[in-house]
Design brief:
Number of domains: 2
Radius of gyration: 19 Å
InterPro entries: GAF-like_dom_sf, HrcA, HrcA_C, WH-like_DNA-bd_sf, WH_DNA-bd_sf, WHTH_HrcA_DNA-bd
CATH class of the largest domain: Alpha Beta
Family: Belongs to the HrcA family.
Distance between the termini: 47 Å
Number of helices: 9
Keywords: Repressor, Stress response, Transcription, Transcription regulation
Organism: Candidatus Shapirobacteria bacterium CG08_land_8_20_14_0_20_39_18
Strand content: 15-25%
CATH architecture of the largest domain: 2-Layer Sandwich
CATH topology of the largest domain: Beta-Lactamase
Shape: elongated
Protein name: Heat-inducible transcription repressor HrcA
Number of strands: 7
């Protein structure tokens, strides 16, 4: 991808953050009024056209506004966003919530998925290398406008029951990052094209597995990414003395 100018980067960041917040295509007037970019709507419109040509934005058929592409969201996650780490209080309460189950793997995973779903307001799925699946937070899907489409919701719910498909998603070769993000067609063509998945791997004694939060591609990444990382590390930490 072409390297963006500082102005283009600021405009793109504003569009992405507005889209994550509202789920609506973003127009130049909204950006000019809400974000201190100190440029005219005409300049913003011109830069938005350039960003569209470069593959960072696209224009839905029914709107004059733009929405970010998966390429833009990946750029935002890697280069622009600032992670919002869990507070010490939240970390302590999360650990206390699952502490009593540290010797019972099934109960531990059930409680971890529930706690992570509540914290991130997403649907959470975990899978071990033995094929066991744990999930929680189904109702959170319905808080996201993308999932008012029953076909999208059905596809996600079917995915959560399919061990082999989850295994294929979680076990692709990834880089050295502790948390991985898959967007749109990286998950599957068709109905999952508007979805996002943030996941990490963990170890529990002799078992290994993956823990992930799934929702729309507008996930609150600054919160979801460090929270998924924390809960994955928590499983590994609490089970480190298992044989």
């Amino acid at each position: 991808m072409n390297e963006l100018s500082e102005r283009q980067t600021k405009i793109l960041k504003a569009i992405i953050e507005e889209y994550i917040e509202t789920a609506e295509p973003v127009g130049s007037e909204k950006i000019e009024k809400k974000y201190p970019l100190e440029v005219s709507p005409a300049t913003i419109r011109h830069e938005m056209m350039t960003l569209t040509d470069l593959g960072y934005l696209r224009q839905p058929h029914t709107s004059s506004g733009r929405i970010p592409t998966p390429v833009a969201l990946k750029f935002y996650i890697k280069e622009l966003m600032e992670e919002k780490q869990m507070s010490v209080t939240d970390e302590v309460s999360a650990k206390e919530r699952v502490w009593d189950y540290r010797f019972e793997f099934d109960r531990l995973m059930q409680e971890v998925t529930r706690a992570l779903a509540e914290k991130t307001k997403t649907t959470v799925v975990a899978q071990t290398d033995k094929g066991e699946i744990y999930s929680a937070g189904y109702a959170n899907l319905l808080d996201m406008p993308e999932f008012y489409d029953i076909d999208i919701t059905r596809t996600v719910l079917e995915l959560l029951d399919e061990s082999e498909r989850l295994h294929q998603i979680f076990d692709r070769p990834f880089g050295d990052d502790s948390v991985h993000v898959l967007l749109g067609e990286e998950l599957e063509k068709g109905y999952l094209s508007s979805c996002g998945l943030v996941f990490t791997h963990f170890e529990a004694g002799s078992q290994k597995g993956a823990l992930g939060a799934i929702g729309s591609c507008r996930l609150n990444y600054p919160v979801v990414i460090p929270t998924v990382r924390y809960f994955g590390n928590l499983i590994t930490e609490m089970t480190k003395n298992w044989k």
